[in-house]
Amino acid sequence: MLIINLPGLRNLIEEISEKNNLPKTAVKDALREALLKGYERYRRSKNLNRHEFTEEYFDNFEVELDIEEEGFRILATKKIVEEVDNNDHHIALSEVQEVEKEAQLGDEVVLDVTPEQKEFGRMAAIQTKQVLLQKLRDSSRKMVQEEFKEIEETVLQAKVMRFEKQSTIMAVSSGFGQSEVEAELPKREQLPNDNYRVNSTFKVFLKKVLSGTQRGPQLVVSRADAGLVVYLFENEVPEIEEGIVRIVAVAREANPPSRYVGPRTKIAVDTYEREVDPVGACIGARGSRIQAVVNELRGEKIDVIRWSPDPATYIANALSPARVDEVLLVNAEDRQAQVLLAEDQLSLAIGKEGQNVRLAARLTGWKIDIKDQAKYNKKEEQETEGNMSEEILAINPELELEPEATVLTPE
User: Fold this and answer.
1) Is the Cβ–Cβ distance between 218 and 145 less than 8 Å?
2) pLDDT at residue 384 tops 50
3) Which long-range contacts (CB under 8 A, 24 or more apart) does 59-67 make?
4) How many angstroms separate the CA atoms of 311 and 317, rounded?
5) Locate the K Homology domain: which residues (predicted)?
6) pLDDT (tens digit per residue) in 334-373
7) How many whole angstroms from its chain centre is CA 54?
8) Residue 289 burial class via C-beta count within 10 angstroms: exposed 0-12, middle 13-18, buried 19 and up
9) Among the listed residues 79, 76, 75, the one whose alpha carbon sits nearest the alpha carbon of residue 108
């Protein structure tokens, strides 16, 4: 059997494996595919008869690496036929039976079709090198994608590397020893109070792992995702990790629509144990636990509220720090509610540029209409008096009412 020599093949595989942080099996697979592409290039250059080589033409060819002999062979799987019309895919039954008498039509045999070393050519060798480099890059990207896909939607430690347009390019550690797996932190996923300097470190939420072989960072990370808030509370509050306290919902506005409004988050918590105060557990002694979260988020305001299965109570809690007098569930099917409170609580309930009520609506899933309790009661009284007047006039159409008139029942 012929063999095309590749001196130092064993050392080459080990060196590429170590340099690219890839398993040797991945390097061998990439090398086989690159050599096969080189063989295709060689065959196309020798195609004097201008035979049509389709994209699938060489699917029955493969490369066999010989680590001991430090070389490789080209093998082709051919089908046994009566008459041969394509030497690359078929072989005559009579030819095979000279070696194997029991061979039958339709069987397949694997044959060595390795060309002479000199014939393989410089052009094919260049093609092999180019394909190998590309396949190694693809293999490396695939390994990273598979590794980080398993930990998608978790929090990682990242270091700022450089800046591209409005995005910050960061580095996160990899289990394969790659110290600088790149991740992109887009402008919309950044916090307004963060100071991104080269080599500064941040906790980031792994939002998405990009598939494919496109250039650039494969990971998209976020500092603005609600998942980061959940992670920080889980790490600061032992009761959450132990399952005593649970996070029910989170509404976050890390990048408010106006620069005059700061970032803010509302988080609803609950517990299965009556003696445990879930809000107090999250805040901690003298606010130590929540302060640690606020510090990591660079001063972002955080409201921790108690979740309730009763929508009215839940909505009232969600509008904290405002004190709510009454919640009217106007339309349960469309989840519409009216909230009544004192005049001095209106600004607190609505919040600067509507941020507080907006977050409360997101947190609860209800459309919230805030009203002044006094004005609402007065309007109700006027509507009630109007309805009474209409009823009386309906009884006696000739009766005219003065604004302050006392209505007497006729004898």
Assistant:
1) yes
2) yes
3) 60/88, 60/89, 61/36, 61/88, 61/113, 62/32, 62/36, 63/31, 63/32, 63/33, 63/35, 63/36, 63/39, 65/9, 65/28, 65/31, 65/32, 66/3, 67/9, 67/10, 67/13
4) 10
5) 261-324, 333-400
6) 999 999 999 999 999 999 999 999 999 999 999 999 999 8
7) 38
8) buried
9) 79
Region(s) of the chain under CATH 3.30.300.20: 225-297, 308-411
Which helix H or strand E contains 30, and what residues bound it? helix 24-45
Q: What pLDDT does 329 receive?
A: 94
The residue that leads in pLDDT, 336 or 143, is 336
Give the homologous superfamily in CATH for domain 308-411: K homology (KH) domain (3.30.300.20)
User: Which CATH number is associated with domain 225-297?
Assistant: 3.30.300.20
Residue 332 near residue 366 (C-beta atoms within 8 A): no
CB 157 within 8 A of CB 173: yes
Beta strands in 191-310 (DSSP E): 201-209, 219-222, 245-253, 264-271, 301-306
Q: Which amino acid is at 138?
A: D
d(CA 282, CA 307): 13
CATH superfamily, domain at 151-221 = Nucleic acid-binding proteins (2.40.50.140)
Strands 167-172 and 155-164, by their bridges, are antiparallel
- pLDDT tens-digit profile of 271-324? 989 899 999 999 999 999 999 999 999 999 999 999 999 999 999 999 999 999
CA-CA distances (angstroms) from residue 385 to 136, 182, 351, 389, 398?
Answer: 83, 70, 34, 6, 19
Peptide bond into 321 cis (omega under 30): yes
DSSP state letter for 280: H
Burial per residue of 232-270, b for 16 or more beta-carbon CB atoms within 10 angstroms, e otherwise: bbebbbebbeeeebebebbbbbbbbeeeeebbbbbbbbb
Q: 4-147, superfamily in CATH?
A: NusA, N-terminal domain (3.30.1480.10)
In degrees and rounded to multiples of 5, residue 374 shows phi and psi of -65, -50
All CATH 2.40.50.140 domain ranges in the chain, comma separated: 151-221
Residue-by-residue DSSP string for 51-106? ----TTGGGGEEEEEETTTTEEEEEEEEEEESS-S-TTTEEEHHHHHTT-TT--TT
Q: pTM for the whole thing? A: 0.68
- Identify the three-state secondary structure at position 252: strand
Contact (Cβ atoms closer than 8 angstroms) between residue 240 and residue 278? no
